[in-house]
Structures are given as structure tokens and as C-alpha cells.
Amino acid sequence: MADSSPQGRGAVRRALKELKDAGYYRVDTVRMPDGTVRSEAHVFDTPHRAPAVPPPDSGGRGTGGAATPPVKDPGQEPTLPDERTRAAVATLFRVIRPEPRLRLGEAEAQTLAPLVAQWLERGSSEAELAQALLPGLPQPMHCPAAILRDRLRRKLPPEQAAPPPAPYAECGHCHDPVPRPGICRACAGLGTRTVAIGTGARATPRGVARARAALRGRPQPA
């Protein structure tokens, strides 16, 4: 990057450090199955905090007291959030952006992401989330994450009920099924009737009665 930039290595190094401190850039040390170690760089579109580095051993043996970055095992489960969590976190940050008192870290937002995802899955918009989370905030505010969690839980909208099944209707003349009460197109002279049962089969009165009863949900006649 420095070789292709007119800014020089120092400017690129400072820019990467700023991105790293803000949570947009991270370098992990990964131990491979053959014992070798390599570095992996990750870039995020939303702030992402790496796990805390453990304190150095007492006395600083071997490293002069400097903290050593943790080495990841590639066989472990990935620690990056899934797409559902990332979408919920991004939505939450957009919703609370107008209220500076609701400042959250990436880790706090990820703990709230399952609740935000439930709101989105139940059809809520960002405007509805803002109306539920932003008005009437307490003063002073000691824990924004706890207030948001309480409001997300208490005001969670109910699950949307499935649409009722379409009502059954039949033609007033021939008793064929029709999408709405009235007469079918054939009886109205607007089309021809098509036999849709079998190949050239004729409907008997008993068969018609059984089919009609099944469509209406009543016990079928023997």
C-alpha cells in the first residue's frame, strides 16, 4: 500500500492504526495445522472489536513485558457475526444515530441484535424502531444498552398472523368453484367450460357432493 501511495509508509501506518482503533481493521495471527503462523487482515463495514488481549506474564519473561497477540486456531468456530446479526447491528446504529446519549460499542450492539432482528422479522420499519426507542429517554442516562434492551423487550410487536384462507365460493348455476360469489364465466357466456378432472371423466352427483363437502370442510358422505 505504501509503495503505491504518494503519502509514504508513515501516513499509511497511521491510517491503519486509526482504522484499527476504531474497529474497522484487524490483523489476526493464525496457527496453521503444520505449525506455521501467518497473519490475516480483516476489514469491516461496521465497527468490530477484537477480544481483549490477556495480560503478559509477571516479570515479562521472554517478551520484556510486552503483550503478545493471541494466536487463533483455524479449526475453531468463527467469531465474526452472521449476516442476520450484522444487519440488525447496522439497523440499530442507524436508528440511534440522532440521539448522542445512546452511544453503544460494537459488543453492546451485538448483544441487542437478536431483539432488533425480531422487530425486523415481524415487519417493523426503522421509523417504528426509532419511535419505540428514542422518545422520553431518562435524564441522566447511566446505561444506554440496558434502556434499549428494556424497550426492545417491552414494546416488541406481536407476530403477524397468517392471512385467512380465501372463502370457498361456487357458481350459482352449475356449482363449479369460482374465485368470488356469483356465476362462472361459462354460465355467463364469457368462455367455454373445461373438464379438469381426469381425462374426459364425467362427474357423478355423488362425486360432486363429496368434492363440495371436502372443500367446505364437512364430513364426506359415504
Shape: elongated
- Which H/E pattern describes the elements? HEEEHHHHH
Number of helices: 6
Total strand segments: 3
Q: Beta-sheet strand percentage?
A: 5-15%
Low-pLDDT windows of residues: 51-68
Structural class comes to mainly alpha
Q: Helix share of residues?
A: 25-40%
Main sheet attributes: strand count, strand direction, barrel closure: 3 strands, mixed
Strand order of the largest sheet: 2-1-3
Determine the mean pLDDT: 76
CA radius of gyration is 32 Å
Distance between the termini: 82 Å
How is this structure best summarized?
The protein is mainly α and 222 residues long. Helix content is 34%, strand content 7%.
Explain what this protein looks like in three dimensions.
This protein is mainly alpha-helical and 222 residues long. The chain is built from six helices and three strands. The chain has helices spanning 9-22, 83-96, 106-121, 126-133, 144-154, 205-216, and strands at residues 25-31, 37-43, 71-72. It has a three-stranded mixed sheet. A hairpin with a 5-residue loop joins strand 1 and strand 2 (37-43). Helix 3 packs parallel to helix 5.
